[in-house]
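Async update (no meeting this week)

Hi team, since we skipped the sync, here's where things stand on the single-chain job. The sequence we agreed to prioritize is pasted below, unchanged from the tracker. I ran it this morning and attached the output directly underneath so nobody has to dig for it. Comments welcome in thread, and please keep replies under the output.
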Amino acid sequence: MRTTVQRSEGNSAASKLIDLIQNMSGADQEALLDMLQGWQCHHRRKDSRKSCSIPVDYATGECSFKGFIKNMSAGGVFIETRRPVSVGQDISMTFIPSNLGKQINVKGEIFWANVVGIGVKFTTENQTLIAMLEGL
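Output:
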């Protein structure tokens, strides 16, 4: 089902975006929305992110999973996963950064989720983790 949106002639970029989006399938519109929400979260971060690829064991409630931390900061991590989770869920994570060689256990809250992974905000401060980030 397509809807028509009134466009201002003075905003050609917005008009072009609206035209492109209206001609997408519903699935493509959902995928675009997920990407834009992730991009928006990226620009709202207060801590800079470090790229990485660290295996992680994580648990939400009674369910345990494996994934990869793809980037992290002092405030949280992005875990690449296709597992369904709910925003607001508590999460426990265990991983061993290569530059530390020591297991890190940290708790967080799922701050956002999309088709490629989850954004986790730490709820506990971990001095070892902060020191590890400085070494990345």
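Quick observations from my side:
Residues 95 and 101 are 10 Å apart (CA to CA).
The radius of gyration is 18 Å.
Reply here if anything looks off.
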